[in-house]
Amino acid sequence: MRIAGVLGTAALLCAALLGTGTAHADAGQIETNYQNPVTALPPVSQPGTHHCTVTEMQNDFGNTISSPAWSGTVTPPADCPGPWNKVVLTWSGSVQGRQYDRLAGVWIGGAEVLRTSTPEPTAAGISWSLQKDVTQFVPLLRTPQPIAVSLGNVVNSTYTGVYDMKLTLTYYQADHRYPPAHTADQVLPLSASTTDAGWTYLNPGQSSSKTVTLPRNLTGVDMEVYARGGGCDEQWFDSVPNDLAAKYPNYLCGGGPYREVQVAVDGRPAGLAQPYPVVYSGGIVPTLWRPIPAIDQFVTQAYDINLTPFAGLLVDGKPHTFTVTPYGAADGWTVDSTLFLTTDHHAAQTYGALTSDTLSLTPAVATTETPGTGDTVNVRVSATRDWSTSGWLATSAGRVTTTVSQHAWYLNTDAVSQGGQLQIVNQQEYGATTVTTAPEHGHATATRHAWSYPITVDSDVPLYTDGNNYSLSATVHQGRMLDDSVLTGDHWRQVAVTDDSVDATGVLARTNGVTTAADGTDSEHWIGTTDTGACYDHLIRAAHGYVTTGRVSDCS
């Protein structure tokens, strides 16, 4: 449902303020303010060692939509020169007035280290803060690097909110208790710029490509990919087939709901990821996400794609091209990627070959439309992916074969009625990627990353005339389940798990520009392992913009 696009374009540290209220959105309630945003995500751990916090940026983002990114230089602090056990980025801000949600990104040395979006403010104003572990970028942080921060905002007589943002890096020195972090040997950005916003905005059918030359002694190649849809593809999961969208263009977007993020090496299919169904803070109905944001709204997780089977092709000292494509895109997508490279410390040259690649860049997507009761049209879209890549490398430790295999399953059902004003969407997507490493001598090892991204949206637009006269209501369930395991003997041993779910209801209505209804309830339950391996269980419930319940348990 796209009417929300009129209202919005696109592990919080704030303490929760307790309020009272019922657990259901009330069409007669007018919520004028809400507390600072809060999520159930576990906090980033802080090693008990000497550390230094450096303010890398403090800037007001006013009318910046067409301006270059804010830029500066990141330099290792003299009092914490490294080696480091951990480096943590803190992103905090405040805004008041009226404003859309905005996409933001941070690049260090050309590598995107944070992708996020902003909350929509109130007249009284809100503030929020989040943290992200950026230790994997230590190979860049050891030397001075350019930093760029993009937050494209619009300020005029209507949209008055200026985002006052601050970014810090905290460097935790390694010692005998906290050893130096284990990272890739080299971080190689594939972004569009080192001094400006590095992402690339792609129209339907377009791809982002970067040609680089890699070290000749590679032993491992991993890619981190960011991809978010915009415009009609901001909520790609409730898009419908083109013929149905053409009947009700005021309410529906076409292209269907299936998307995947594809990666190619020198034009050869190399890997893919199913994108997470992100909802911006102004998405569907803005009151759904006050004060608990949707999953992935503030701390966007990148997609990890193992390209080691292709390493034997990449060590010839010649330029090679890496391409990212948002398959199925019906509107613009913002993409970016970074390579994390490991090298042979005892050899100047490795060599090898790609031996198998069964991945096709043309998925088999099945779509059916079936008439239902009244004017209801039931749309069903499904897809299954099974593929693998395999290759070997001759290294100083002998010949090593790496095989990446993936199974992915997707189903989206959408009951569309009332001329496109009512949609009931249920999307399930899940799968697992297994990486098996088989050395010439010794036993093979394997890791498995499994995911599940359920989302259900029941949205209604009983009235829509223009931006000053409309009525919206919705109920949303959103989840993200992640499971990382290693093969031990003949069984899988779980090493990290996340089970995050958000449930929200919201209403919003205006008549002649005057708000006549605005209310919401939401809850989030996060249970899983923290970055130290501890079990963490956090439940938050909120009504009318304020937290009513907050419970944290170690779930041991």
TrEMBL record:
<protein>
    <recommendedName>
        <fullName>Peptide N-acetyl-beta-D-glucosaminyl asparaginase amidase A N-terminal domain-containing protein</fullName>
    </recommendedName>
</protein>
<dbReference type="InterPro" id="IPR056948">
    <property type="entry name" value="PNGaseA_N"/>
</dbReference>
<feature type="domain" description="Peptide N-acetyl-beta-D-glucosaminyl asparaginase amidase A N-terminal">
    <location>
        <begin position="47"/>
        <end position="355"/>
    </location>
</feature>
<keyword id="KW-0732">Signal</keyword>
<dbReference type="InterPro" id="IPR021102">
    <property type="entry name" value="PNGase_A"/>
</dbReference>
<dbReference type="Pfam" id="PF25156">
    <property type="entry name" value="PNGase_A_C"/>
</dbReference>
<feature type="signal peptide">
    <location>
        <begin position="1"/>
        <end position="25"/>
    </location>
</feature>
<dbReference type="Pfam" id="PF12222">
    <property type="entry name" value="PNGaseA"/>
</dbReference>
